[in-house]
Amino acid sequence: MKNQHVLLTGGVGGLGLGVTPAVLEKGGHITIPYVNYQQVERLKGYVNPADFARIRFVTANLSDEVVVARLIDEMPRVDVLIHLVGGFSMGKTDSYSFDAWKADFELNLHTTFLCCKHALRRMRETGYGRIVTVGSRGAVEPVGQLAAYCAAKAGVVALTKAIADETKGTNITANVVLPSVIDTPANREAMGSADADKWVKPQSLAEVICFLASPAAGDIRGAAIPVYGSV
Questions:
Q1: Which residue range is the domain that position 142 belongs to?
Q2: How far apart are CA 196 and CA 186, in angstroms?
């Protein structure tokens, strides 16, 4: 990805702590939208100081289409979209609030749609692009008390596959990774760390994502790639 322009959403989050350094190591110039500046400060501890200058940070609400469109239009071009933004909450379906259900879809699916829509618009200008989204094992193997999360992530998989079909015959691809539990600080806090050695490491998932985001992956489109670790 040397000298390519990469929109990396969630680049300061838990998974981003693995993906952002990997993209920088491969020569990318990164735009990272963020909400919490403390996470930007945390990222500095994971990135080579010499590479940090290749990151452009922009405060942005990715649920607002006007904001997303402006964010993407301000980039010189969009060679790669890596969309990491997401999150989950738990609860049984018969007691889960509709507001919580809608919030899960807003965070996991709607932001994916908006970023893909406008990144794809820019990619069509140059005829080149790589889109990598993050689904979940739960998207293809749903489990109880995660109905909203699994349904939203299943939507991410369907959206990504649809984009891959729409871009056939071009040098634009779209693929999705399906991690199981990722070993992030937030997941350790929420679930404990007893089984963390079996979880997917952010650095490991980053290598899969970076390959799909590279020119070398031009013949891969519409793939949903499981990255399950030892769970």
A1: 5-227
A2: 12
* Per-residue pLDDT reduced to its tens digit, 94-134: 999 999 999 999 999 999 999 999 999 999 999 999 999 99
DSSP-assigned beta bridge partners for residue 130: 80, 173
| Residue partners of 147: CB distance under 8 A and separation at least 6 | 93, 96
Query: How many domains does the chain contain in total?
Result: 1
Q: What three-state secondary structure class fits 39?
A: helix
Pairing of β 171-179 and β 55-59: unpaired
CATH label of the domain that carries residue 190: 3.40.50.720
Instruction: Read off the pTM.
Output: 0.97
